[in-house]
Design goal:
The chain is an all-alpha fold and 190 residues long. It has eight helices and no strands. α6 packs antiparallel against α7 (154-175). The chain starts with a helix and ends with a helix.
């Protein structure tokens, strides 16, 4: 229990230090910097502010459609608007709980309770997350490749290749059970 409390305190301290660093680098600790910040925020286009508020909801709706089709593929009854509501509730719990999987647990619980198929709902949420990870990695690889000459950071190329390799390995381990059987056989010999 002490380690959880220490982790929370450490997390708050790191967050405050990072925010202070960003404020310092942005010049918000000076009077001129604050005035420039307020002027910039005040001159923001209301259309773009509203668009930036609506865009994440649209992306959540697209993700819930993907989740709907993955759920239907394995026989879970679902409705896209219902899943969109669960997705938004899950996003709320991602913001409030101290982990990024709180929203996934919420989505599995709500959809599992509504359908009575908890294990299948967990599989659908996992695959929705995993396909999103694959899409994100592919987009990052394409953008990284297109911008590699501009960025000229060799570590980025290595990091992207390692990430792609680990994701492909994880996907292979999920789809093909030979690795699992080999590890089970190996653990039986030990």
């Amino acid at each position: 229990m002490k380690s959880k409390s220490l982790f929370k305190v450490l997390r708050v301290i790191i967050t405050v230090l990072l925010l202070a660093y960003v404020f310092w680098k942005s010049g918000l600790f000076s009077t001129d910097g604050r005035a420039e910040f307020i002027g910039t925020v005040g001159s923001a286009s209301l259309f773009y502010v509203l668009l930036s508020i609506m865009f994440p909801s649209f992306l959540d709706f697209i993700s819930s459609i993907k989740w709907h089709y993955l759920s239907r593929t394995i026989g879970i009854p679902s409705r896209p608007l219902q899943l969109w509501a669960y997705y938004i509730m899950g996003r709320f719990f991602n913001l409030v709980l101290p982990s990024n999987i709180g929203g996934d647990i919420t989505r599995v619980h709500l959809h599992g309770k509504a359908s009575g198929m908890k294990a299948q709902c967990a599989a659908a949420v996992f695959m929705e997350r995993f396909t999103g990870l694959i899409a994100l990695i592919l987009i990052a690889l394409v953008i990284g490749w297109l911008q590699s000459k501009v960025l000229n950071i060799p570590f980025m190329d290595v990091a992207m290749l390692v990430t792609m390799g680990a994701t492909l390995f994880g996907g292979w381990a999920i789809i093909d059970d030979r690795l699992f059987n080999w590890l089970r056989m190996l653990s039986g010999k030990l």
